[in-house]
């Protein structure tokens, strides 16, 4: 069986369709790479792409997509609700089939070196690829965002792993290797951003909340709704339903409810099955055997 790697690059553009399609086109041009999904959020002014293929081909596709971002996105003009530090903001590599995490770490370092060398963007390695414990957490790497990154990079502890100067219009990028992550957003029926920020602080691990949860409060200007924007780094240890129920409980304190949730990009089926088991109160349910598609897939694979 072939080696397969997933990559989920995030770009700081969620409003201009022509730019988003140009990035998608750069990925589609690479043989052997499948663009599984891409979506854009105007309020966040951000797009998320999910592609899969052999390690070398995925690396090539990401470099071509990053080149488009450098050419077409000017961070000095960028405004959006999501924290960001670069035109291509983060590039995580995820092992899928016959690939180890160590191999993805090597791949991320090769990609990072190429981005700095060929595109002139400084690169910070994060998560499993991090060269220091302080760089493992993406939020810490990105802190200061594009506007404060040049000054931050002057500090010895925040010199980039590759490159030495902030790109004047494309900024900087974080590149790393990690396990599958779920980008899960919960929308509240309030326009009070402080409520979303307070709930985010309660649920995130760094503030003493749920393990494997990163969260912040943002404003969806087009809907006039506050949102708890969440990254879940281990959905098996901290499932979706547990996060949702805690957010509902905390929101109730403010007389606020949840009007909807969303998953950005792709998600493992098990994360959804686990939530279905919880809310349907299923007893003895086996997702591998009792979900029709999963059962057929297992049968086809012998």
UniProtKB/TrEMBL annotation:
Cellular compartment(s): Cytoplasm
GO CC, alphabetical: cytoplasm
Pfam families for the chain: FTCD, FTCD_N
Top EC class for this record: transferase
Pathway this chain belongs to: Amino-acid degradation; L-histidine degradation into L-glutamate; L-glutamate from N-formimidoyl-L-glutamate (transferase route): step 1/1
Documented EC number(s): 2.1.2.5
Name assigned to this protein: glutamate formimidoyltransferase
Species this protein is from: Lucifera butyrica
Lineage: Bacteria, Bacillati, Bacillota, Negativicutes, Veillonellales
